């Protein structure tokens, strides 16, 4: 087991290195002169040369990469071209709203998705099951921004129950923070609730017809324990996989949701950076996002062994 | 029709006119067409018949473990200590399962939960039905593993099912079933899926444990040879009904139903060490989807006459403790 964790860590580092090379090349291999791209259409040759010098673009690629990687590993993600401020600082200022939204969305998606999926499998073909199917179809087919605008219209504009847009930092109070996040969280969670619930249902249905479930019933195990212990633990591996993937894909959903709800998070930062061609910021966010992605995958892989004793590496 | 003689105080389980149906897309399968039998305290009752005759459905009907959506027990009574199990609430039924009536299944490889240790699964049964603490329940699990003769129970108790052989898993199943000292153990073909040598060991184990604990056993098998080794009384099932019911001695000495005779002719001779095969009686088992007119065995029966194709024979006494559902039982028995 310890050996497996070690091997898995080494391969994680290798993956991150590949991702690093890719992100690095993103800018350098883009067609045309990166410095000219960054400088924009109205730039003078001096401005371009200036940028070229600032980014170290005159050196050979491997040297550039070595410098770049070294500074990133020492915690320096570079300087924003547009604002002139350190990228790390820009990102960390925007981190709280994004992480709040992501975590709330995952908590909501996992609890509702798994519970819904279990109940749907338990009474397959019943009311819960059919509601779930309808909801899942909705979740998969309606774009995030449509859901967002619909919820804003209904719960904020029509009824005034909830605020329309914006964000309240958590140190201004837990209540206001949560109230501001309800609509964005619901918007973003819909598709993940659908995804997780469908996977839970399918996985549970398969398990419920297994011989060992009949054995458990023959022992006098209660319905609750049958579902939530005997079945869920067996159905856990595919459910965990889909939860891990959802969390990873959440990153793209966050961008749209933050735009719709005018939340000053990392998603908005990226959108602005793309508009301004602020490549260091884009790169910095990509590195952090892919780092998160790889870490989540690692955590999921390690969690498999806790769920299913047959998985050994 | 019923053997009144058996209806004494020592009747543990009294099944009367049990009818179970399966509901398909367009058809209804009458898996049990009204069967009646009794299990007495401490006895071993054999239930034999070809595959598909309703043995498992009988067992699952008793414990009410049939698939909820497709199957239903539509008639009859299952009296356990005089109380009809069919009238119990789900909660009352759970208190019976694994506690007073336990069951072991045909497939040891898939009947244990792969994500829990064997010890956990045995201890769970104990904890559901007693107030035992976790550690007491685990101690009981170790004791049960020792009882079913699993070597090194201290270590095995922490094994997952996939770390055990098929024979060992079936022993663990038996340990789990007997952990709460049930009054009745239903064993549904517990050795069919095992190697021949392991089969004999498991049979021996069940017989020994039965003597040790005094549990009544309903032993389901398609093998009359196994019945001869383990049981006191037998019911022979055919197409969802009871064809014959007798003590083991009577059944082998004077089989009164042509179907029983057919089964006996196809019991393999173990001395030749051949793999046991399904009985070979010419003809096919009738479909249970359409109502059967006459005796369901008539199309395959060498004794069949006109009346057999018109009227359904009921189980009738043909001797002390011996009943058969055949119009010509006396002639069959005599000749
Ligand atoms: N899950 C099921 N769905 C539909 N029909 C079933 C099911 N299980 C059993 N049956 C029907 O009940 C009959 C008896 O089955 P079973 O009791 O399993 O036979 P066996 O004597 O081999 O244990 C079968 O012939 C089949 O028609
Ligand atoms: Mg069977």
From TrEMBL, chain A:
Q: Where is the ABC transmembrane type-1 domain?
A: 95-304
- Taxonomically, the superkingdom here is Bacteria
User: In which compartments does the protein localize?
Assistant: Cell membrane
Membrane topology listed for this record = Multi-pass membrane protein
PROSITE patterns, A to Z: ABC_TM1
Q: What residues form the membrane-spanning segments? A: 9-27, 99-122, 134-157, 177-197, 235-261, 281-307
> What GO terms in the biological process aspect are recorded for it?
transmembrane transport
Q: Does the keyword section mention Membrane?
A: yes
The record's annotation in Pfam families points to: BPD_transp_1 (PF00528), BPD_transp_1_N (PF19300)
Q: Does the keyword Amino-acid biosynthesis apply?
A: no
Q: Which InterPro entries match?
A: BPD_transp_1_N, MetI-like, MetI-like_sf
Keywords, ordered alphabetically: Cell membrane, Membrane, Transmembrane, Transmembrane helix, Transport
- A GO CC annotation given for this chain: plasma membrane
In terms of PANTHER family, this protein maps to: DIPEPTIDE TRANSPORT SYSTEM PERMEASE PROTEIN DPPB-RELATED
| Family to which the UniProt record says this protein belongs | Belongs to the binding-protein-dependent transport system permease family.
What is this protein identified as?
A: Peptide ABC transporter
Q: Which organism is it from?
A: Microvirga vignae
The lineage is:
Bacteria, Pseudomonadati, Pseudomonadota, Alphaproteobacteria, Hyphomicrobiales
Automatic annotation (TrEMBL), chain B:
InterPro entries xref list? AAA+_ATPase, ABC_Ni/Peptide_Import, ABC_transporter-like_ATP-bd, ABC_transporter-like_CS, Oligopep_ABC_C, P-loop_NTPase
Q: Which PROSITE patterns match?
A: ABC_TRANSPORTER_1, ABC_TRANSPORTER_2
Q: Which GO terms describe its cellular component?
A: plasma membrane
- Tell me the SMART domains matching this sequence: AAA (SM00382)
Q: Name one GO molecular function term.
A: ATP binding
Location(s), subcellular: Cell inner membrane
Membrane topology, as annotated: Peripheral membrane protein
- Segments forming domain ABC transporter: 15-264
Alphabetically sorted, this entry's keywords are: ATP-binding, Cell membrane, Membrane, Nucleotide-binding, Transport
User: A GO term (biological process) for this protein?
Assistant: transmembrane transport
Question: What family is it from?
Answer: Belongs to the ABC transporter superfamily.
The name this protein carries in UniProt is Peptide ABC transporter ATP-binding protein
Species assigned in the record = Microvirga vignae
**Lineage in the entry?**
Bacteria, Pseudomonadati, Pseudomonadota, Alphaproteobacteria, Hyphomicrobiales
């Amino acid at each position: 087991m310890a050996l497996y964790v070690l091997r898995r860590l080494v391969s994680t580092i290798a993956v991150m290195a590949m991702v690093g090379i890719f992100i690095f090349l993103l800018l350098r291999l883009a067609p045309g002169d990166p410095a000219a791209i960054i400088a924009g259409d109205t730039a003078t040759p001096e401005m371009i040369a200036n940028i070229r010098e600032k980014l170290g673009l005159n050196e050979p690629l491997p040297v550039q990469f070595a410098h770049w990687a070294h500074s990133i590993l020492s915690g320096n993600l570079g300087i924003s071209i547009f604002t002139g401020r350190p990228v790390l600082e820009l990102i960390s200022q925007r981190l709280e709203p994004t992480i709040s939204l992501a975590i709330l969305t995952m908590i909501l998606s996992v609890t509702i998705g798994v519970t819904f999926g279990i109940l749907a499998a338990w009474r397959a073909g019943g009311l819960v099951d059919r509601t779930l199917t309808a909801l899942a179809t909705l979740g998969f087919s309606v774009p995030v921004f449509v859901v967002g605008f619909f919820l804003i219209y209904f719960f904020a504009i029509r009824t005034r129950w909830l605020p329309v847009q914006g964000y309240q930092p958590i140190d201004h109070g837990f209540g206001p923070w949560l109230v501001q996040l309800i609509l964005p969280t619901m918007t973003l969670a819909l598709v993940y609730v659908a995804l997780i619930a469908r996977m839970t249902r399918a996985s549970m249905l398969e398990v419920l017809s297994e011989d060992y479930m009949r054995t458990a019933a023959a022992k006098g195990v209660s319905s609750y324990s049958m579902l939530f212990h005997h079945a869920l633990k067996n159905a856990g591996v595919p459910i965990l996989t889909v939860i891990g993937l959802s969390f990873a894909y959440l990153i793209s959903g966050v961008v749209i949701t933050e735009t719709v709800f005018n939340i000053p998070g990392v998603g908005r930062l990226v959108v602005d950076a793309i508009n301004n061609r602020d490549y260091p910021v884009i790169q910095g966010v990509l590195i952090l996002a892919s780092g998160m992605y790889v870490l989540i995958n690692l955590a999921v892989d390690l969690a498999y062994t806790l769920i299913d004793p047959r998985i050994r590496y | 029709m019923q053997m009144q003689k058996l209806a004494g105080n020592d009747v543990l389980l009294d099944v009367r006119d049990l009818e179970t149906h399966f509901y398909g897309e367009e058809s209804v399968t009458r898996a049990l067409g009204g069967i009646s039998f009794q299990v007495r305290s401490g006895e071993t009752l054999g239930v034999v018949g070809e595959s598909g005759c309703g043995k498992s459905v009988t067992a699952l009907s008793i414990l009410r473990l049939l698939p909820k959506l497709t199957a239903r027990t539509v008639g009859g009574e299952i009296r356990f200590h005089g109380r009809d199990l069919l009238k119990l609430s789900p909660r009352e039924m759970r208190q019976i399962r694994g506690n007073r009536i336990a069951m072991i299944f045909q497939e040891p490889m898939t009947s244990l939960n792969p994500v829990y240790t064997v010890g956990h699964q045995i201890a769970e049964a104990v904890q559901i039905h007693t107030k035992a603490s976790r550690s007491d329940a685990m101690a009981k699990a170790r004791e049960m593993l020792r009882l079913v003769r699993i070597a090194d129970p201290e270590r095995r108790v922490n094994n997952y099912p996939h770390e055990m052989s098929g024979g060992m898993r079936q022993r663990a199943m038996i340990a789990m079933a007997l952990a709460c000292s049930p009054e009745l153990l239903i064993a549904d073909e517990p050795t069919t899926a095992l190697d021949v040598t392991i089969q004999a060991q498991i049979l021996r184990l069940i017989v020994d444990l039965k003597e040790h604990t005094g549990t009544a056993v309903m032993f389901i098998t398609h093998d009359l040879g196994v019945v001869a080794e383990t049981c006191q009384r037998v019911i022979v099932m055919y197409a969802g009904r009871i064809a014959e019911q007798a003590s083991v001695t009577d059944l082998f000495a004077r089989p009164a139903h042509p179907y029983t005779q057919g089964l006996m002719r196809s019991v393999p001779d173990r001395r030749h060490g051949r793999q046991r095969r399904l009985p070979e009686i010419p003809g096919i088992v009738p479909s249970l989807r359409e109502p059967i007119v006459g005796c369901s065995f008539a199309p395959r029966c060498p004794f069949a006459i006109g009346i057999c194709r018109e009227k359904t024979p009921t189980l009738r006494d043909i001797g002390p403790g011996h009943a058969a559902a055949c119009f010509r039982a006396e002639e069959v028995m005599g000749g």
